[in-house]
Design brief:
13 strands, 15 helices, D-Maltodextrin-Binding Protein, domain 2, about 350 residues, alpha/beta, single chain, 2 domains, about 50% helix
């Protein structure tokens, strides 16, 4: 009896006093890892407990999220840090995780910004790094170059004529190639854009090209980014083509960019986790602390936090963008134009 009591006491104290863990599905030093380190440092001040970072690397950052889903989510002190690439994979790859299974602690409603070399001419082909996480940029470039009302095959042809889709580069190689001029366009999340592209804009060798806008879950539309006003794709498209973007191809773009950017930096726990409200309350305190916010904004920019049920509403809104036509267009363009091994996931329709 005495031994049983000691075992139970050990289990209780281990659970009660264990550190919280952020599961990060990529290597240390990646964009999500840097963001998670900043947030963990500020959040643990409000939580009153330590947060450690656990990096689980793997192809296209999928294994880390799968590991959380299959093995780690039942640990009440384990929090999944997902990013935009996980959102893209959810739409078009075979994965184990499902956003509908979790509760949002909170997320930053972020954006991706594209830059281009200042000396590029309208007739020049875009040289851009390939990658599953860059699918929204491929759609955006195609829309800007090709306009509305084309067939899917016509969009594929126009893309191949307008863009050189360069395979085999990780983020470090992509940034180096852009600095050297081997690529003439690039894209980054807000934190990385400030670090890697903004200096070249200030020195005059680069300029802003476009961004994808900020999702408004209530209206299911995207608004201009106040950090980079006037460069939202929809705004630029209308200036070039004299009308708003529309049609199946645009809807596929809206679908993939919304999942990538609307869930670009998000914190998840399993439904029923007893620490959910405690974590949400700590996050609320953090985003209302001017010093914490200033530290985060200095790295990222000024973007809205969606906490608790607002984060769940964001996820629920994204699910409504999944239609058979948009999903089929996404998968077919990925396959024919980008060479990605995408799969059509019919189970996502009306999920």
């Amino acid at each position: 009896m005495h031994k049983i009591f000691l075992v139970l006491l050990l289990l209780f104290t281990t659970s009660a006093f264990a550190d919280y863990t952020f599961v990060i599905p990529q290597r240390p030093g990646g964009g999500t890892s840097v963001w998670a380190q900043i947030v963990a440092t500020e959040l643990e001040k409000k939580l009153g407990e330590k947060i450690i970072l656990r990096h689980i690397r793997g192809a296209r950052d999928i294994p880390g999220f799968n590991k959380f889903h299959n093995d780690l989510q039942n640990d009440d002190k384990t929090i999944m840090v997902s990013h935009g690439g996980n959102g893209v994979a959810f739409l078009q790859e075979k994965i184990d995780y499902n956003y509908a299974d979790y509760d949002s602690i909170g997320l930053m409603n972020l954006n991706i910004i594209a830059g281009v070399k200042s000396n590029i001419n309208a007739s020049d082909r875009i040289k851009f790094a390939a990658g599953s996480g860059n699918v929204p940029e491929a759609f955006a470039m195609t829309l800007l170059q090709c306009g509305n009302n084309l067939s899917l095959d016509e969009y594929v042809t126009c893309f191949k004529k307008s863009v050189i889709w360069v395979h085999g580069m990780n983020s470090g190689a992509r940034r180096l190639a852009y600095r050297r001029g081997e690529l003439n366009a690039t894209r980054e999340n807000p934190a990385s854009f400030k670090k890697h592209v903004q200096p070249s804009i200030e020195e005059g060798t680069s300029r802003l090209w476009f961004h994808h806008g900020i999702l408004d879950a209530a209206t299911k539309t995207h608004s201009d980014d106040p950090n980079y006003p006037g460069y939202q794709l929809e705004i630029l498209f209308e200036k070039i083509w004299g009308e708003r973007p529309a049609g199946d191809f645009y809807n596929a773009y809206k679908l993939v960019k919304s999942f990538r950017d609307g869930l670009q930096k998000a914190l998840w726990v399993r439904k029923g986790n007893p620490n959910t409200e405690k974590l949400r309350e700590a996050l609320t305190l953090m985003v209302n602390d001017s010093k914490s916010v200033a530290k985060i904004q200095s790295k990222v920019g000024t973007y809205e936090w969606l906490i608790g049920e607002d984060g769940n509403k964001q996820r629920n809104t994204l699910m409504t963008f999944i239609t058979a036509a948009a999903l089929k267009t996404l998968v077919e363009f990925n396959t024919k134009a980008l060479g990605l091994a995408s799969v059509y996931k019919e189970t996502l329709i009306n999920n």
